[in-house]
Structure formats: structure tokens, C-alpha cells
């Protein structure tokens, strides 16, 4: 005990005022009252907010909402579990998981079929997490079930999921509400804390991952809290490098008696056991307070992880607002008054740097509407670390990130779900650095790979690639042309252009085009423009976006745009008549000679029967020979445009 006290005093942060948060209303059509996920869903570098089956995406013009469906959902988990660069979504419905994915070309959330995630039916889905259960590099889904036992859906090669609960999970009874995964014993495997609410007495569970299955060790580790537990958060509150467990509890009537609702803070004793120090540390809270969820983050960037807890009254009782506990070096003080959180009451809570200023914001609701609680910031330094797994899962979920600065080392883990049905931290590690200006970063990957990056300057976000070190993603970039909702005619080149994406190395761009009917087209180029072959397009509405790739990381354009393609019949045009044309042979078989009664330079275009441009040539000195061997037989039109006007003439291609 003396060692811990001395450590706390040695690294005690300077006294400062509480962080202040300002409520900013999110779009009302973002489904409110649900557990949020704070994550960059579209890959443009800006953090978005998902709530249930809806997503509010940040754009240059403000928030833009996409809604998957109108079915009930309680929470949502997000990750690129397929490894293709586009993030998938597990919408946690009441009784089934509804998988979806972000369509980058269309800029929308869409259903994802054939994964097997939607097959099992649950009693009531509660706290759940994405994790790489067996460290095979593919993310799995552990579903907390209020009723029958929890369910592990393991991902197989090809992106389908199988229910392996019977062979892997301990087979405990249901009643799961909260869930959070972390490697508390530092053996490289993810262990899972499970909060139970009913039936009482319901002792919380701790799943310890072994070589082939989980073992329930709540009693032996002394984390088997018998109170009604909902939200759970792993954090290294005392800075000793070992993750501790915070549990948000609430009172429940049992046989006419009200149970103790004080919170728990289980300090990791580094020997496989824990001690509840919530009272001594200052985060137990009133025994009658309804604490539903919690999130751990360094809100003031002083280098010590704080706690925010979502409270809400039951029935018509007195108000029970959120609590903000500031970590002062292994001890907490309640800094809720004056923070701007004293009037917020919700079941759910999420955290992440939504506005990109380096200060962790909060997401909840007010008056049944989703709300962003923007952190007022300060002068302390910070660092954000994003990961790109190669042997490990793409997102680096389960990786341990150690940030050393000023004689201390802070620990974070990349998580795929936390609190109560929420997902915070935008799949990155955020660390406050206080007054330090540089840091050394060590990443311990699920695969066993260890990467070290030294001398990292503060106040930025970096990306570390597994086995390769730092490799930041290409910078944000905008689309240029065609404009949004433009109409492209078959008689003009279908050229798409965009601003360059800055990167230290070469960048390849993928132009993504998708018809509303589902036909998808992809083109690759190293240039910042591309002309799509006319034969590839057909009448109707399309959407397009661009993805920049530096070989390891990707960045999606700041928006997706819509356009329509219109076939224009050359015969309908009425331009000024141009010089006479002579074609031969007609019918043609492999080549066609075109003579123009004007020696001036001109542009020659061949249009097919649908008016689509299939060939373009320059005419010099009034003559050109066209190679038609790549075209199918049929009726065509030659169109010649020069300064003197436009001329057309039909021909037939035969074989």
C-alpha cells in the first residue's frame, strides 16, 4: 500500500479547475436514447457519432444523417472486421444482430447479408464487444445476453461467423448487462468483465481467456461484485501499468429491501486478484444513485485517466445527473459542479474527440434528443495513436499502447466496445501529456509483434503499422468535379477529378462509382483525375467517391457525390452544320477511313446505337483511319467537331 501512495504523490498533477463541457445538439433525426459509438465511420478522418441504427456523419456543411432501418436497436459496434478498408457495423437489436456496412461510394449505411451474425435469436441483447477471441487476425463478436448464456460468434475465413459458445464460453447463466474486454493479466489474451443485474444476488463475472476457452474467475479474482451492475470500464487509474476495473452500479429492491448501489473500483493487485478501493479512491458515489454506464478518459489531458458516469433517476425521484470524477494522481475528486454536466441525465454515455481538437468530448442525450457535450479544452498536451494491423486484426483491437513521457508510462488498449452497449474512443488510444512535448510509443500487438516509435511530437494523431512503425494515413482531400447532382451526357467525356491527398509516399486513388441499382465500378489511378469509358456507364442515378491509399492506410474523400448519366442521341443535336464527311468502306469490317472536307484540326467521336462515346480520335489534315477491331458489330455514328461546326454520318460495322 505504501508503494502505491508514494507513486501517487510522486506524479501528483498540478491543481487545475474542472473541465467544462458545452451541450451542442446533434441532428434530431439521429435516433436518440441509445448507446452511442464514437468512431470515424466513413474513413475521411473526422469522427462521427452512431446511435442505434443511425449515423451522424461530419461533413463540410454540418452533420449528415444516414439511417439503416426503422427497427428497434439499443446499441451499435463498429470495426473493419472484413479488412477491406470499409467499416462494418453490428447493430444490436433487441433480439438479433443486424449487420451493416458503410458504402463509401454512396455515403450511406447499408444492410450486410450472408455473415451469419443475423441468424441467432437472443432473449435480449445487452452489453457486447468486438474482439479477436482466438488471436487469428479476424475479429469476433461476443454478445451479452439477458437470459440464456452469452454467445460468442467467431469469424471464419470469408467473413462468416459461427456460434462457438458451447465450446469456448464457461456456460454461465444469463443476466448480462455490462461488458468490457481487456488483457488484465498481461498475457496477450483478451479477458472479459461481465456485469450482471438479475436475478439477484447476481455476482459479476470475469472471463479469463485460456489456451482454448474462457474460465470464469470472478470469485477467485475478487471481482464478483454482487450489486446490480451495468456499465464497466477498464483503466489504469493509479498509473502502475496494470488495468483496473470500474463498475457502475445501482440499487435494486430485493424482497422489500433496497440493495447497495455504490460503484466499484477494483484495483489490479498484479497477482491475478483485485481489491475494491472505490470508497478510498473517491468514486463509490451515493449508495442510492442509479449509475447506468461509465467511460474512462483523460478529459483534462493531465496524464491521469478520469471517469464520467451516466446517471438517471428511476421514476419520479430526485434528479440524478452525470458525475465527472477527476483523477488527481490515483485519487478522484467530484468536479461535476461547474462542468456543464450537472443537468445531464441519461442511461448511455460515449466519449471521443469528436471535433478533432485533442480534447475528449462526451455524447449523451437531453430531452430525449442526442447531444454532443463539447470539451472546452485547455493548455495541456496530448497524443492520439491509431493502429493498422497486418498479422493482427486491421483495427488493432486488443493491442496495448504504452506512451512514455516525463518519467511515466501510460497504458491504453484499443477496444471494440465498452460501458453499457457503447463504443468509445474512436478505435484509437488518446493520452494526455500534461506539459510534456514529446513521447515514446510502444505497441504490443495481439500477434505478439512489438513496435516502438520514439520522439513523437505532442498534439497530433499518428498511425502505427504492425511490424513497420509509423506510417500516417494520407491527408483529407476534397472532390472537385463533377459537382454534386450533376448531369453527365453521353456526348461528353465522363471525367472525374479531385484534390491531391498529401502523404510522405506515393498515393494510389480508387475511384468508386455505384449505380442506384447496385452495379459498382472501381478504377485505380495515381493521377487526380480519371475519364471513365463511356461504355461502362448507362442511364440513371449514380454516386461516387474516391479513396486514397499509401499501401498501408486509406483515406476516403470528404464527401460522396451523386450524379446522373444521360444518353444523348446524336441525331437530336442541332449544332451548326460542319464540313461534309466521306466514310469508307461502309459497312466496315476492321477499319474505317474518314475524310473531312476541311483541313482544320478536328475531334472525331464514334457513338454507338445508344449514343455512348466508344472511340475518340484527333483528325489532322482532314483525314483519319479508325481501328474498329475492339468494337462489336452494330450501327454507329461518326461525329466530327471543328471550328466550322459539327458533322455526323452513320456507318455499320460488320464481321
From TrEMBL:
* Species this chain originates from: Rubricoccus marinus
Q: What is this protein called?
A: ASPIC/UnbV domain-containing protein
Q: Where is the signal peptide?
A: 1-18
Identify the keywords attached in UniProt to this record, alphabetized. Answer: Signal
Q: Which residues form the ASPIC/UnbV domain?
A: 396-463
Question: Which is one Pfam family of this protein?
Answer: UnbV_ASPIC
Print the organism lineage: Bacteria, Pseudomonadati, Rhodothermota, Rhodothermia, Rhodothermales
Q: Which Gene3D superfamilies match?
A: Immunoglobulins (2.60.40.10), Integrin alpha, N-terminal (2.130.10.130)
Amino acid at each position: 500500500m505504501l508503494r502505491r501512495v508514494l507513486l501517487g504523490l510522486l506524479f501528483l498533477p498540478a491543481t487545475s479547475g474542472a473541465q467544462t463541457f458545452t451541450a451542442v445538439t446533434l441532428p434530431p433525426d439521429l435516433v436518440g436514447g441509445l448507446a452511442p459509438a464514437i468512431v470515424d465511420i466513413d474513413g475521411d478522418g473526422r469522427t462521427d457519432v452512431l446511435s442505434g441504427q443511425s449515423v451522424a456523419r461530419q461533413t463540410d456543411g454540418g452533420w449528415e444523417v444516414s439511417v439503416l432501418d426503422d427497427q428497434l436497436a439499443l446499441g451499435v459496434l463498429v470495426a473493419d472486421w472484413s479488412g477491406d478498408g470499409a467499416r462494418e457495423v453490428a447493430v444490436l437489436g433487441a433480439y438479433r444482430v443486424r449487420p451493416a456496412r458503410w458504402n463509401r461510394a454512396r455515403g450511406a449505411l447499408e444492410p450486410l447479408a450472408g455473415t451469419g451474425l443475423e441468424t441467432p435469436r437472443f432473449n435480449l441483447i445487452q452489453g457486447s464487444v468486438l474482439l479477436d477471441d482466438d488471436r487469428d487476425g479476424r475479429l469476433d463478436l461476443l454478445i451479452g445476453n439477458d437470459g440464456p448464456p452469452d454467445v460468442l460468434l467467431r469469424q471464419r475465413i470469408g467473413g462468416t461467423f459461427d456460434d462457438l459458445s458451447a465450446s469456448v464460453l464457461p456456460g454461465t447463466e444469463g443476466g448480462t448487462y455490462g461488458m468490457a474486454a481487456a488483457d488484465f493479466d498481461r498475457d496477450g489474451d483478451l479477458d472479459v468483465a461481465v456485469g450482471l443485474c438479475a436475478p439477484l444476488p447476481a455476482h459479476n463475472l470475469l472471463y479469463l481467456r485460456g489456451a482454448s476457452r474462457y474460465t470464469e474467475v470472478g470469485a477467485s479474482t475478487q471481482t464478483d461484485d454482487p450489486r446490480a451492475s451495468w456499465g464497466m470500464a477498464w483503466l489504469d487509474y493509479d498509473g502502475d501499468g496494470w488495468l483496473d476495473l470500474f463498475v457502475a452500479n445501482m440499487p435494486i429492491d430485493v424482497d422489500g429491501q433496497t440493495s447497495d448501489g455504490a460503484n466499484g473500483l477494483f484495483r489490479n493487485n498484479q497477482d491475478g486478484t483485485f481489491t475494491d478501493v472505490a470508497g478510498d479512491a473517491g468514486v463509490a458515489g451515493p449508495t442510492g444513485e442509479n449509475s447506468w454506464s461509465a467511460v474512462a478518459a483523460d478529459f483534462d489531458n493531465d496524464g491521469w485517466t478520469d471517469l464520467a458516469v451516466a446517471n438517471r433517476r428511476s421514476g419520479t425521484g430526485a434528479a440524478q445527473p452525470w458525475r465527472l470524477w477527476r483523477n488527481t494522481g490515483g485519487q478522484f475528486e467530484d468536479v461535476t459542479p461547474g462542468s456543464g454536466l450537472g443537468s445531464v441525465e441519461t442511461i448511455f454515455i460515449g466519449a471521443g474527440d469528436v471535433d478533432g481538437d485533442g480534447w475528449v468530448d462526451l455524447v449523451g442525450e437531453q430531452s430525449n434528443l442526442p447531444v454532443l457535450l463539447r470539451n472546452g479544452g485547455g493548455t495541456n498536451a496530448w497524443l492520439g495513436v491509431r493502429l493498422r494491423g497486418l498479422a493482427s486484426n486491421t483495427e488493432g483491437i486488443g493491442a496495448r499502447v504504452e506512451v512514455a513521457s516525463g518519467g511515466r508510462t501510460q497504458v491504453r488498449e484499443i477496444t471494440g466496445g465498452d460501458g453499457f452497449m457503447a463504443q468509445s474512443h474512436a478505435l484509437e488510444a488518446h493520452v494526455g501529456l500534461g506539459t510534456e512535448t514529446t513521447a515514446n510509443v510502444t505497441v504490443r500487438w495481439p500477434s505478439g509483434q512489438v513496435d516502438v516509435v520514439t520522439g513523437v511530437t505532442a498534439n497530433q494523431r499518428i498511425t502505427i503499422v504492425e511490424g513497420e512503425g509509423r506510417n500516417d494515413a494520407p491527408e483529407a482531400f476534397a472532390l472537385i468535379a463533377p459537382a454534386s447532382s450533376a448531369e453527365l451526357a453521353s456526348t461528353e467525356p465522363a471525367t472525374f477529378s479531385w484534390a491531391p491527398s498529401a502523404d510522405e509516399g506515393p498515393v494510389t486513388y480508387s475511384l468508386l462509382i455505384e449505380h442506384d441499382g447496385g452495379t459498382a465500378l472501381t478504377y485505380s489511378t495515381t493521377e487526380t483525375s480519371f475519364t471513365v469509358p463511356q461504355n461502362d456507364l448507362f442511364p440513371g442515378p449514380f454516386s461516387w467517391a474516391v479513396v486514397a491509399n499509401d499501401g498501408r492506410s486509406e483515406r476516403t474523400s470528404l464527401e460522396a457525390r451523386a450524379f446522373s448519366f444521360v444518353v444523348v442521341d446524336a441525331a437530336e443535336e442541332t449544332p451548326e452544320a460542319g464540313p461534309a464527311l466521306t466514310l469508307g468502306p461502309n459497312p466496315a469490317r476492321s477499319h474505317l477511313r474518314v475524310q473531312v472536307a476541311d483541313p482544320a484540326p478536328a475531334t472525331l467521336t464514334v457513338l454507338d446505337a445508344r449514343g455512348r462515346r466508344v472511340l475518340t480520335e484527333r483528325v489532322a489534315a482532314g483525314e483519319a483511319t479508325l481501328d474498329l477491331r475492339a468494337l462489336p458489330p452494330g450501327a454507329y455514328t461518326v461525329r466530327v467537331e471543328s471550328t466550322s461546326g459539327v458533322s455526323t454520318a452513320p456507318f455499320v460495322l460488320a464481321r
